[in-house]
Design brief:
Blueprint: H1 6-10, H2 15-25, E1 30-32, H3 34-47, E2 52-57, H4 66-80, E3 84-89, H5 111-125, E4 134-138, H6 140-155, H7 160-163, H8 167-175, H9 181-197, E5 201-205, H10 209-221, E6 228-232, H11 258-267, H12 270-280, H13 285-296, H14 301-316, H15 319-333, E7 343-346, E8 351-352, H16 353-359, H17 366-374, E9 378-380, E10 383-384, E11 391-392, E12 395-401, E13 405-411
Parallel strand pairs: 2-3, 2-5, 3-4, 5-6, 7-13
Antiparallel strand pairs: 1-6, 8-11, 9-10, 9-12, 12-13
Helix pairs in contact: 2-3, 6-9, 9-10, 11-14, 11-15, 12-14, 14-15, 16-17
Protein name: Tyrosine--tRNA ligase
Keywords: Aminoacyl-tRNA synthetase, ATP-binding, Cytoplasm, Ligase, Nucleotide-binding, Protein biosynthesis, RNA-binding
Main location: cytoplasm
């Protein structure tokens, strides 16, 4: 959303504020309210007091993927501008369960699950953020202290009608899908975090817009200057359709091995590559535009995708690892076997090909294994397996499924 008041202000802004605004807006979906944000930037420049910028994540899973880094990257950019970033772990709100984008009630996590997931969250986020300059907080600190009386007082500040304006709640009501009362509390509790932290700007995905706006309203109710909100697009997964999600299996984990990460980036479509460049690359926009023009003029998109894969692997591993991953990928493309593959010892020869692939952890089930055989995606020592009824005798051999999965098997 572009605030009509912003252009009139921009001519009087310092170069530093204009640069900060440009960095803030790169790749974002919406910045609300832009004129308010400009005023905050100007004040920060004049007073030397950095903005308090908040990102809250519920530790619903122990591992972060590239989809999470879209907003983390933006947080790091704002951190590098000198502002105070707050990495908020929603250990209290995780027990409610965020209903955003859900058509069913999200099962709440236990305290033990939350603690286990939270242990790895900030360590992984520190692969993007400067942990020495990051304030890490847990919202149980103030939510537990709120108590039942405080919860009732908080609930009195927002109407049911406004809560039900949320798109996912509206759809569930129309469909007759149950909505539990505790789910209605989630936007209020997330909004209360902004009050507790006196947030100037809150970041989130586009699916969090409603919750972020609640934070603005609760700050007004509490006599605070309302935060601005910045929403980032949701990154599609490897399938190019659904948003990246570990539960959907279409993700690239930021702690995955370099070779795996590289190969997964290379597996995205040529069209989707530009979306990944837009949301994940730190290259100047002019350089990305030049890449696009060169592809339109006949350059092989694969070469441009290699540069993206190397950039991402370098970020989370090293330049050496990125170079090795490219060599490994090229070797596999030529039908070669990677240098490092798991060794697996199995018993029960002769073993059916479906069971063999499942027990070697190359397929999740025998039915998936047999589908891969039907599609010509299974090889033993480089030879394609076409017989779903194949019984594999005892011996040592290399099993391959698709382009990326290998195992050196000893079958007895």
């Amino acid at each position: 959303m572009i605030d009509p008041a912003a252009p009139q202000q921009s001519s009087a802004l310092s170069d530093a504020v204009r640069q900060a605004l440009a960095i803030t807006k790169r790749g974002v979906d919406e910045l609300l309210i832009e004129s308010d944000y400009i005023q905050k930037l100007v004040r920060a420049e004049q007073t030397g007091k950095p903005l308090r910028i908040k990102l809250g994540l519920d530790p619903t899973a122990p591992d972060l993927h590239l989809g999470h880094t879209v907003v983390l990257n933006k947080l790091r950019q704002l951190q590098d501008l000198g502002h105070q970033v707050i990495f908020l772990i929603g250990d209290f709100t995780s027990m409610i369960g965020d209903p955003s984008g859900r058509n069913i009630t999200r099962p709440p996590l236990t305290k033990e699950q939350i603690e286990q997931n939270a242990r790895t969250y900030f360590a992984q986020a520190s692969l993007v953020l400067d942990k020495e300059r990051t304030e890490i907080r847990y919202n149980s600190q103030w939510c537990d202290a709120l108590g039942s009386a405080g919860m009732i007082q908080l609930a009195a500040k927002y109407t049911v009608a406004r809560i039900l304006e949320r798109d996912d709640f509206t759809k569930r009501l129309k469909a007759g899908t149950p909505i539990s009362v505790h789910e209605l509390l989630y936007p209020l509790m997330q909004g209360y975090d902004s009050v507790a932290l006196r947030s100037d700007l809150e970041l989130g995905g586009t699916d969090q817009k409603f919750n972020l706006l609640v934070g603005r309203e609760l700050q007004k109710e509490s006599g605070q200057e309302p935060q601005c909100i910045l929403t980032m697009p949701l990154l599609e997964g490897l399938d190019g359709v659904e948003k990246m999600s570990k539960s959907k299996g279409n993700y690239i984990g930021i702690t995955e091995p370099a070779n795996t990460m590289f190969a997964k980036v290379m597996s995205i479509s040529d069209d989707m590559m530009w979306r990944y460049y837009e949301l994940l690359s730190f290259r100047p926009l002019e350089e990305i535009a030049a890449f696009k023009r060169s592809a339109e003029e006949g350059r092989n998109p694969r070469d441009i995708k290699v540069l993206l894969a190397q950039e991402i692997v370098t970020r989370f591993h090293s330049a050496q690892a990125a170079g090795d991953a490219l060599a490994d990928f090229d070797n596999r493309a030529k039908g070669g076997i990677p240098d490092e593959i798991p060794d697996v010892s199995l018993a029960g020869a002769p073993l059916g090909i479906g069971q063999l692939l499942k027990q070697a952890n190359l397929c999740a089930s025998t039915s998936e294994a047999l589908r891969m055989v039907e599609q010509g995606g299974v090889r033993i020592d480089g030879a394609v397996v076409s017989d779903k009824g194949l019984k594999v005798d005892a011996g040592a051999f290399v099993l391959q499924v698709g382009k990326r999965k290998f195992a050196r098997v000893t079958l007895a």
